[in-house]
Amino acid sequence: MKKICLFLLLVANLSFAQQEFPSVDLKSLESETISTSSFNEQDKLYVFSFWATWCAPCIQELEAISEVYEDWKTQINVEIIAVSTDDSRTQKRVKPLVNGKGWAYTILLDTNQDLKRRLSIANIPYLVVVKNGKIVFIQNGHTPGAEDELLAKLKSL
């Protein structure tokens, strides 16, 4: 019975990890409409980091990655897309926060949480790694040093 449960769990994880990344139109900080399907360079890794201005672990994660992001780009073909899930009440805080932090990420606004819902994300911080339009890795939550583990995982993909 344990073997059957383990097999089913493994198959469920593999099938979710290979699902297509949804195509959703989001806004940039400059109010430009950008489709998530535009992140489609062959064999490039796209790390979609879901965060909000009120989420301290989210900011810690983005700060930690920011410190090593330039180094990552010299090692692997990767782009970080920070997707703010702030709603209409807190959305006005996103641009000042990003400008103050000096993040070199593409910042997208998921104000209606359409993408978050399509991916069934319950809690943030939440990372989705996409390669060739398919979800290849998911990480939920943040702990100090997790960026090193993430880099190792990205290198293996």
Quick take:
The chain has five helices and seven strands.
What does this structure look like?
This protein has 5 helices and 7 strands, in the order αβββαβαβαββα. The chain has helices spanning 2-17, 56-75, 94-101, 114-118, 146-156, and strands at 25-28, 33-35, 45-51, 78-84, 106-109, 126-131, 134-140. Strands 2-1-5-4-3-6-7 form a 7-stranded mixed sheet, covered by helices on one side. α2 (56-75) crosses α5. The longest helix has 20 residues, at 56-75. Residues 1-16 have low confidence and may be disordered.
Structural class: alpha/beta
The fold-level CATH name is Glutaredoxin
Percent helix, as a range, is 25-40%
N-C termini distance: 32 Å
Number of helices: 5
Return the string of H and E elements. Answer: HEEEHEHEHEEH
Low-confidence stretches: 1-16
Assembly category? single chain
Number of domains: 1
Helices, strands, pairings?
Layout: H1 2-17, E1 25-28, E2 33-35, E3 45-51, H2 56-75, E4 78-84, H3 94-101, E5 106-109, H4 114-118, E6 126-131, E7 134-140, H5 146-156
Question: What keyword list fits this structure?
Answer:
157 residues; alpha/beta; 5 helices
